């Protein structure tokens, strides 16, 4: 093939790709993308709570890096929240998905905790899953979207959680100043942030648990750590294993977009990054200026593109419009 | 000094979309609504008002600053919002819209007796809040959001309310 012919073929392929990208309607995309779009719609749909007041996005707010600004979030019946809302950035890479329970390893399983959990009640469908299935399946638009996304499968908890998981797996945050610098791009970084990065990966030992690239060790088997003493009440991992040595151990939270996700720690008891850092035993050796440098570095983990990406935002089109476009 | 400024910046909640989660039910109290914020003194004396379900009904759904209401909301699918709420309610939730005419520039608080979502619009532009908080203990206030407003008409969009009625009040902050 000549260079010109190859160029023509490549041009045709590019044109087809562009056409596909801008063709309205979900049906033009592969089934997996339809699942992602369905999951996104469900993520923002407050009908996933028993009284229609709470969606996944109620607590996982995009502009907060898919966390919220509360220490904990009460459920639909007013039950106090138990633990701080965690980020969903890069959650598809995590092997362990909750603060205290290493058994929850699949996003499909994790979704059932807020939707149907009872300790505490969050979205309120515990024991009433059929109500949710009937509610979602009772809408013609959703039936059509599910039929396209999951051919041959019913609208039910299994497909609802699969769609939510498919969407969450697309939540990739890899464009913070830290990432761009790692890629060799020119990034305007303060001297404090440079010092903070050196501290983070060096003397302060932060990276021993908050390991790059997601600044957590949640992708591995040993992600549960106790950072401070004393602790009371919530025993974290110990609650699941029954081992005294596990009391107070919690899964290392990711630090992606951490500067916009206050408050911090498993109970949201640290209102600031400096306060959260100071709660670590290792941080007692740090001077105030060093903590300040660490905070400056952590601010370089904010991915402005991720928190404004329309692909992760509340869908503008109604369910009916989305189904009609198929 | 710089650390203090940085920490203060991190702690500042400024966006309307940063509304605080509603509080859990208040602990047992001898009496309710006896220690209200001064600007919300009229909170216990509510009059009835029906929320509009679209822009055409706004003139009959006007919240007067300083006056408390128990508003009747509509089923969410029956409400045509001016703009898509930032936190839309589900089909089984209730919602509605109201007009507010501001005569004097200043800081105003919108108080609710539930944890419903509030969008405040000028035209079709969402206004950013300057603060938010939960109601004090032993009051029926569940949510308070503050905005800096200029004279003119605003639209209050309420979404994701569980109940068909909503205690609501807007009041100037001293």
Task: Compile the SSE list and pairings.
The complex is a heterodimer of chains A (326) and B (174).
Chain A: H1 3-22, H2 31-43, H3 56-59, H4 107-116, H5 129-137, H6 140-149, H7 157-168, H8 177-182, H9 191-201, E1 224-225, H10 237-241, E2 250-251, H11 273-278, H12 288-298, H13 304-308, H14 319-324
Antiparallel strand pairs in A: 1-2
Helix pairs in contact in A: 2-6, 2-7, 4-7, 9-12
Chain B: H1 2-11, E1 46-50, E2 62-63, E3 68-72, E4 74-75, E5 94-102, E6 106-112, E7 117-122, E8 125-126, E9 131-133, E10 143-149, E11 152-161, E12 165-172
Parallel strand pairs in B: 1-3, 2-5
Antiparallel strand pairs in B: 3-12, 4-5, 5-11, 6-10, 6-12, 7-8, 7-11, 9-10
Radius of gyration of chain A: 22 Å
Mean pLDDT of chain A: 90
Mean pLDDT of chain B: 87
Strand content range of chain A? under 5%
Unreliable stretches of chain B (pLDDT < 50, length at least 5) are 1-17
Report on this structure.
The complex is a heterodimer of chains A (326) and B (174). Chain A starts with a helix and ends with a helix. Chain A has a two-stranded antiparallel ribbon. In chain A, 46% of the residues are buried. In chain A, helix 2 (31-43) runs antiparallel to helix 6 and helix 9 crosses helix 12. Helices cover 39% and strands 1% of the residues of chain A. With 326 residues, chain A is mostly helical. Chain A has 14 helices and 2 strands; from the N terminus they run H-H-H-H-H-H-H-H-H-E-H-E-H-H-H-H. Chain B is mostly beta strands and 174 residues long. Chain B has 1 helix and 12 strands; from the N terminus they run αββββββββββββ. Chain B has a 6-stranded mixed sheet with strand order 1-3-12-6-10-9, with no helix packed on it. Chain B is globular, with a radius of gyration of 16 Å. Chain B starts with a helix and ends with a strand. Mean pLDDT of chain B is 87; it is low at 1-17.
């Amino acid at each position: 093939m000549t260079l010109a012919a190859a160029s023509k073929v490549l041009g045709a392929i590019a044109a087809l790709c562009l056409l596909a990208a801008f063709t309205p309607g979900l049906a033009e995309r592969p089934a997996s993308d339809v699942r992602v779009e369905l999951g996104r719609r469900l993520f923002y749909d407050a009908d996933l709570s028993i009284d229609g007041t709470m969606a996944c996005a109620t607590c996982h707010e995009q502009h907060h890096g898919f966390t919220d600004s509360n220490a904990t979030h009460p459920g639909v019946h007013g039950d106090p929240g138990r633990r701080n809302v965690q980020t969903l950035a890069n959650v598809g890479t995590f092997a362990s998905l909750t603060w205290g329970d290493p058994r929850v390893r699949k996003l499909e399983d994790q979704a059932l905790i807020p939707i149907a959990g009872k300790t505490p009640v969050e979205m309120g469908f515990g024991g009433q899953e059929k109500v949710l299935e009937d509610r979602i399946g009772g809408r013609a638009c959703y039936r059509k979207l599910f039929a396209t996304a999951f051919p041959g499968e019913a609208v039910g908890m299994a497909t609802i959680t699969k769609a939510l998981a498919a969407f969450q797996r697309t939540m990739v945050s890899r464009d913070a100043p830290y990432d761009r610098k790692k890629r060799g791009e020119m990034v305007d970084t303060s001297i404090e942030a440079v010092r903070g990065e050196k501290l983070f990966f060096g003397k302060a030992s932060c990276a021993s648990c908050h390991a790059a690239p997601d600044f957590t060790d949640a992708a591995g088997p040993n992600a549960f750590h106790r950072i401070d003493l004393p602790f009371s009440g919530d025993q974290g991992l110990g609650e699941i294993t029954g081992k005294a040595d596990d009391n107070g151990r919690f899964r290392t939270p990711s630090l992606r977009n951490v500067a916009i996700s206050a408050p911090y720690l498993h109970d949201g008891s640290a209102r600031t990054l400096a306060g959260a850092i100071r709660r670590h035993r290792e941080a007692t050796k740090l001077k105030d200026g060093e903590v300040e440098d660490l905070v400056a570095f952590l601010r370089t983990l904010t991915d402005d593109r991720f928190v404004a990406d329309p692909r992760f935002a509340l869908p503008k089109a109604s369910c009916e419009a989305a189904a009609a476009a198929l | 000094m710089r650390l203090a400024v940085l920490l203060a910046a991190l702690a500042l909640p400024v966006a309307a979309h940063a509304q605080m989660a509603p509080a859990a039910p208040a602990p047992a109290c001898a009496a309710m609504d006896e220690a209200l914020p001064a600007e919300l003194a009229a909170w216990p004396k509510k009059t009835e008002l029906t929320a509009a379900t679209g822009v055409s009904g706004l003139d009959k759904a006007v919240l007067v600053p300083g006056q408390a209401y128990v508003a009747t909301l509509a089923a969410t699918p029956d409400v045509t919002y001016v703009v898509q709420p930032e936190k839309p309610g589900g089909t089984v939730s209730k919602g509605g819209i109201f007009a507010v005419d501001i005569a004097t520039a200043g800081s105003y608080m919108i108080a609710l007796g539930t944890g419903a979502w509030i969008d405040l619009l000028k035209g079709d532009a969402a206004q950013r809040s300057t603060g938010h908080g939960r109601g004090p203990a032993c009051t029926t206030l569940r949510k308070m959001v503050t905005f800096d407003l200029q004279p003119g008409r605003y639209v209050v969009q309420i979404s994701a309310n569980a109940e068909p009625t909503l205690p609501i009040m807007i009041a100037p902050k001293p």
